[in-house]
Amino acid sequence: MRYLLISVLWMVCTSCALQTTKGLRQAPVKQAEVVNPYFSETSIDYVYKAKIDVYGRYFGGILIVKKLSGTSHRVVFTTEFGSKIFDFLYEGDTFTKNFILEDLDKKIVVNTLNKDFRLLITEKVPVVEQYASEKHNVYRTEAEGRYNFYFFRKGEETLEKLVHTSKHKEKVTIKFESLQAAAKTSEENSIAEKISIAHNNIKLQIDLAYLIKD
Asked: Which of 38, 50, 83, 161 could form a disulfide with 63 if both were Cys (CB 3.0 to 4.6 A apart)?
């Protein structure tokens, strides 16, 4: 009976464990905040070929992210012919929906898109815990009762993945492929060549490919 109880407790604890930290070892916190380098330069218009799949509805076009000031960004998604699909403004903690197509103007969709793009553009966040693996330094941050895990490749210190979780489950995974350059400038360091945003609990997928200027 005692063995059965221990087995049940072990299975409950295992099922509740956060998959994000599996295989990671906890490390001393060596920096006060994590810095997301992407979308951080006001001098760059970040222009991407975009594909967004929302509950089986497909939208393709051009996504433009523009940093307006220290804490302000504008995110605009248009068709390839220039018609707006959505237009969002971020000013500090304030989110403004300037425009969104009627087909997408559902509370759950708008809230999800808002949170996704806020994750992309948030630059500096206090670190709560630090982990390490063979390939990555991982920093955990907290916001509104949720966790964000930033995976930086060791040596290069390139942000490769961001996982948004509850206390027990992964909710969103964002993967980055940084711009390849022999010796990157600070501006080039702020560019992710490819970005994928995958949700585990709703049917929403975003894929972005950077459009390099000739």
From this structure: 50
Give the helix/strand (H/E) hosting 33: strand 33-35
Residue-wise pLDDT tens digits, 25-54: 999 999 999 999 999 999 999 999 999 999
> Confidence band (pLDDT; 50, 70, 90) for 194?
very high
Task: Provide the CB-side half-sphere exposure for 21 (13 A, CA).
Answer: 20
Domain coordinates in residue numbering, the chain:
19-210
Whole-model pTM: value is 0.89
Give the helix, strand, coil percentages of the chain, each rounded to 5: 20, 50, 30
Say how far apart CA 73 and CA 121 lie, in whole Å: 7
Whole-angstrom distance, CA of residue 145 vs CA of residue 160: 24
Nearest-5° Cα angle at 185, 176 to 187: 65
Can you name the CATH fold of 19-210? Answer: outer membrane lipoprotein receptor (LolB), chain A (2.50.20)
What is d(CA 203, CA 45) in angstroms, rounded to the nearest whole number?
A: 29
How many angstroms separate the CA atoms of 193 and 145, rounded? 31
Task: State how far the Cα of 34 lies from the Cα of 50, in Å rounded to an integer.
Answer: 27
CA dihedral 45, 64, 37, 22 (to 10 degrees): -160
The pLDDT, as a whole number, for residue 98 is 99
Amino acid at 176: F
The strand pairing partners of 45, in sequence order, are: 66
Question: What is the per-residue pLDDT for 13?
Answer: 42
